[in-house]
Design goal:
The chain is mainly alpha-helical and 173 residues long. It has helices at 3-23, 28-38, 47-54, 58-71, 93-118, 125-161, and strands at 45-46, 75-77, 86-88. It is built from six helices and three strands, in the order H-H-E-H-H-E-E-H-H. It has a three-stranded antiparallel beta sheet with strand order 1-3-2. The longest helix is centred in the last third of the chain and has 37 residues, at 125-161. The two termini are 20 Å apart.
């Protein structure tokens, strides 16, 4: 496979994943910046390189950086001798992102609990709905947190030994 064809395949894969992330609620430009960093052969990219790669404005990159950094899907890194900001897709980003999602699960469960109190308990129509919501989000929160902790422990151990977690799953087309 030629270098150009390989590079184009990586770009296509990045754009497809960006579309999935955008469909899941992420702002489209932020999704494209994140996946450009994820699929980049370079360790870091500057704002100018992201602009060129994605054919977007510096302002769009700046807005994406502001959205992605707090999510843990992008980090600024110093590069000796360079005055420009350099960005990369950070190690541990997926665990960080899912950890933030577990906080949302806990928040949703707490809101349902408060609403259930306001509804006077689970015996009314709204009470039944809120009770189900509290049960669902509480269940998910209790289940996901241990999985993230297990992932972090296995990922760290395997990284130290040079092994990877082998997961076999079908890939989306």
């Amino acid at each position: 496979m030629t270098h150009d064809k390989h590079k184009q395949q990586l770009r296509d894969a990045a754009e497809k994943l960006a579309l999935v992330l955008a469909q899941g609620g992420m702002q489209k430009t932020a999704a494209r910046v994140s996946t450009a960093l994820l699929f980049s052969q370079q360790e870091t990219m500057t704002s100018a390189e992201l602009c060129e790669e994605l054919q977007i404005s510096a302002g769009a990159v700046s807005a994406a950086v502001r959205q992605l950094a707090p999510l843990g899907l992008l980090e600024r890194v110093p590069v000796p001798g360079s005055r420009r900001d350099h960005y990369r897709f950070p190690n541990g980003a997926w665990g960080q992102l899912m950890t933030q999602q577990t906080q949302l699960l806990a928040t949703m469960s707490a809101f349902a609990r408060k609403g259930l109190v306001a509804a006077g308990g689970p015996d009314s129509t709204v009470g039944r709905r809120l009770h189900e919501m509290e049960d669902f989000y509480g269940f998910m929160h209790r289940g996901v947190r241990p999985l993230i902790d297990r992932w972090n422990a296995e990922f760290t151990a395997n990284r130290e030994t040079g092994r990877s977690l082998k997961v076999h799953a079908s890939t989306p087309e």
